[in-house]
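User: Good morning. I'm curious how CO-5-methoxybenzimidazolylcobamide would be positioned relative to this chain. Could you predict the structure with it bound?
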Amino acid sequence: MSYQTLLDAVIKGDIKTAKEETLKAADAGQNAQDILDQGLIEAMNVVGDKFTKGAIFVPQMLRSAKTMQECIEVLKPHFQENAMTTKGKIVIGTVKGDLHDIGKNLVGMMLEGAGFSIIDLGVDVAPEVFVDKIKEANADVVGMSALLSTTMPSMSLTIKALADSGLRDTVKVIIGGAPVTRKYAEDIGADAYASDAGSAVLEAKKLLNILR
Ligand code: B1M
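Assistant: Good morning! Here's the predicted structure, ligand included:
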């Protein structure tokens, strides 16, 4: 199936058409992951390229982001894995200085769908806030997202803050986001790296030894 109309609608920020196309594809039995990857995420890549080339500006990027978020809401019920008991508590957030939350929200949604309890701290989360919430929730895992190369060092600072507060041995750390690499995760001492929301679920299960 071609997702061209959906792609064009997300790029243009045409929420109504984008939602209709998402629903149409889901109702036609298209795999939700394919709609996400080939329609929505692909559209955001085009938006990113246009922004880099100066063909669009922040307001258009925001409009596309809003369109994508609305479409993800439409897809949400198609991602649930039907898990009744919690597999573990995960604190998740976008690191300090960074306001990008679509990828982080997707990761949270997939983890929730896979049966984890999610405590979402939102965006621009300072290391000390991660530490406090992990302590408060007695979390098993913390997931950090960064979309800017300039905010990636916040991940390292948060891991350091965890160590300084004596929490590093009790909580596993997963990191991800477009500029983040496996090598970077190893360099800063994270326990796992995930390139997308699906892999984040897999990595969380591996870390907690609950892989089926
Ligand atoms: Co901005 N932005 N942005 N932006 N933005 C990027 C990231 C950029 C690559 C665009 C570009 O120049 N081509 C560029 C970053 C360059 C760099 O540092 N490498 C950029 C820039 C420069 C900026 C500003 C500085 C622009 C400006 O103001 N001059 C500014 C910074 C603001 C800030 O954060 N302080 C800015 C602002 C914004 C908006 C607010 C307008 C908007 C965000 C709205 C929102 O999130 N609510 C926005 C958007 C929409 C983008 C692009 C176009 C799309 C991002 C997105 O949502 N992708 C983006 C270009 C691009 O990515 N192609 C761009 C879809 C999403 C599903 O993918 O987030 O990668 P992603 O998540 C993936 C994986 O990375 C992974 O799983 C997800 C998919 O399954 N993943 C994880 C993510 N987190 C994970 C965590 C995990 C595991 C996996 O474990 C915990």
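The radius of gyration is 17 Å. The mean pLDDT is 93.
Let me know if you'd like a different ligand tried.
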